[in-house]
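Shipment paperwork, digital attachment
Item: protein structure file
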Amino acid sequence: MLLVARDPLFRGHDPGRGHPERPARLDAVAAGIATAGLDGAIAALEPRDATSDELELVHTPGLLARLARLSAAGGGALDADTVASPGSWGAAVRAAGAGLAAVDALAAGEGMAAFLALRPPGHHARPDAPMGFCLLNNVAVTAAALAARGERVCVVDYDAHHGNGTQEVFYADGRVLGTIGGGCYENEALWKAREVLKTRKAVTVKYELADDFAAESGLICGGQMEVFIEPIEPSPAVYIFGGGHVVQFVGRVAHDAGFRVHVIDDREKFANRERFPEAAEIVVEDIPTWLANTSLPSTAYAVVVTRGHRHDLDALRALAPRHLRYLGLIGSRAKVKRIYDVLVEDGTVAIEQLTNVHAPIGLDIGAVTPQEIAVSIVAELIAVRRGKTDKVASASLRWMPKLQAPQRA
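Attachment content:
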């Protein structure tokens, strides 16, 4: 018996007219089953919602909160080809849970196999970002839940292009056994690859397939083997706090440089699609409130360019204790000193945490206009991304004032 999961909720995800991933796909599945005369060989499987704990085995809480907010706000574009509608969040959570419902039903002996007629799809979605029509990674959620139970899992992915999101979820997972072929060298290369993911620097590894080792390992081809391992990172996310004139150009330049731009400001007059057409996300909300409810991935870049000293202070108070790839604050040395003094004095941020902040932000290229300041800021982001901060250290505006820890009674 084949279990088939269907749910009207999946039609609620509507990317818009003309989008290739549309509700009509479900009609095609139903028509195919009817045409093949399989009605007597199938049984209905009722999908369920994935829980927050199950989703967080794969996805960051920040992504989950972002998708829920966007759907509640009426939907919008997530990237060039991934779109959310008002019903997308409910459909995505149900789709992510469908595989889990199938696993339980199969374990109970209700069928021999399961087919999930669901939307949105889910093997391109990455841990911290939707991608390729996919909001959540349904495949990875099911696999991760099974692995957490101690089950052995094999993911077989058929597509015109591979499920990059599923691969990224598990690529650095030490429980992954590997792929077909390669023997001990493959295992060694996998561990080297995990090191490269941490260091973000490419390496070339050479192996000598000597006769004695070949006989011992079973690799009888002999000769030499050279493996080039290069980290292929997804487009990094930059969260820009503020929506003013400088930010408008920072967003534009950062997007053109390959960053996924997120703009957060409490003023809809400034944080809107007209001013930031290239942004992957625009949030109109009080910045401290949004930060209190949102976690940022450790790979995130954060740029604080709000409209005033108090707002910069509130943003930095929430961001400085976090582990981020980059955190920058705009302003003069005098402003930086005042903000640091307040944060240290009230005990919310340790001096050591402030040493990680790039402030004043940017490289010293003599920038004066908003456009030039944007180039200065994004140039520093690029240097961090490419591991070249040591090369541009002499041009960095970054400065650390002398701070004294407060004396507590």
